[in-house]
Design goal:
Blueprint (H helix, E strand, L loop, with lengths): L1 H35 L5 H30 L4 H30 L1 H7 L4 H23 L9 H36 L7 H24 L1 H7 L3 H24 L8 H8 L19
Length: about 290
């Protein structure tokens, strides 16, 4: 039985490492092309920061996995640090899904009343607020190589779990509303970004949610289901690595070979700015 468990753990470890390396490559390409080859639209800013958050999470996960394999021990500090990148991505996905939903349901009102730099400000606030939202509970609960304070840990952890589950609900509800609106209520053609928004929410629910559950119930799951963390980590790496593939599938045209920046630009939808002319179609067409 012990040998079977070691084999299973090794398989999960190498699968996680392979998925993480592939995700680093995919998100690195997205960062390169969105950062240097495509002019920023309101939603490409979210995609750029999402790729950065996933790159951070996957990079920390791969790096700590290699260190763990070399040292032969698991440190709770690794999980706390990698969870920062995952949490930033979760918050960004919730904001991205909510804005996508509003822009399609109320296009005229959204275009008229949305401040110009909303995406950049929201992304900056998310990065700034996620660090204390994750590291304060981790510090109070002894995950950062510090002594745990039970009462403080309970208070911070309850607030952190409530915050994370709220973000999952926002992303899930926004995706559901968009799905119902496009499928049943809207008379306009299905937008190209519809597949990206729906695919991202489904990835979150099936691949990202287990890691949220582990953060919420870590002591119990460590005791009752030791295999839960490796499985949740693998699924979280799939969650972070599959988004560039979703963008590629949404933006590609069968039978045509195009540069990656053009595929990404098309996948972002009508608001993506044209590289050659520097123009953007009106957001009211979303």
């Amino acid at each position: 039985m012990f040998g079977l468990w070691r084999t299973f753990s090794s398989v999960l470890f190498y699968l996680t490492l392979a998925v993480g390396l592939g995700g680093l490559l995919g998100n690195g390409l997205v960062l390169w092309h969105l950062g240097f080859h495509i002019r920023k639209g309101p939603f490409s800013v979210y995609v750029l920061h999402l790729a950065a958050a996933d790159f951070l999470f996957l990079g920390c996960q791969v790096g700590f996995s290699v260190v763990q394999a070399a040292l032969g021990s698991r440190d709770s500090l690794y999980f706390a640090v990698t969870f920062v990148g995952f949490s930033v991505g979760l918050w960004l996905l919730a904001a991205f899904s909510a804005e996508r939903c509003l822009s399609h349901i109320f296009p005229t009102c959204y275009q008229r009343h949305r401040p110009r730099h909303t995406s950049g400000i929201v992304c900056g606030l998310i990065w700034a607020l996620t660090l204390p939202a994750v590291l304060l509970p981790a510090h109070a609960c002894g995950l950062l190589r510090t002594s745990a304070s039970p009462l403080t840990c309970l208070r911070y952890h309850a607030a952190s779990v409530t915050w994370l589950l709220s973000l999952v609900c926002v992303a899930g509800v926004a995706g559901l509303v968009l799905f119902v609106w496009v499928g049943c209520c809207s008379q306009r053609p299905r937008p190209r970004f519809f597949g990206i928004a729906l695919g991202s929410v489904l990835l979150l629910l099936f691949c990202g949610l287990p890691l949220v559950f582990y953060w919420s119930l870590r002591p119990f799951l460590n005791f009752l289901l030791p295999v839960f963390l490796p499985l949740a980590t693998l699924l979280a790496c799939v969650h972070g690595s599959a988004k560039p593939l979703i963008h590629f599938m949404a933006g590609r045209q069968p039978g045509k070979r195009q540069p990656l920046w053009a595929v990404l630009q098309r996948s972002l939808g009508e608001e993506a700015q044209l590289e050659a002319g520097g123009l953007a179609l009106p957001m009211g067409l979303l």
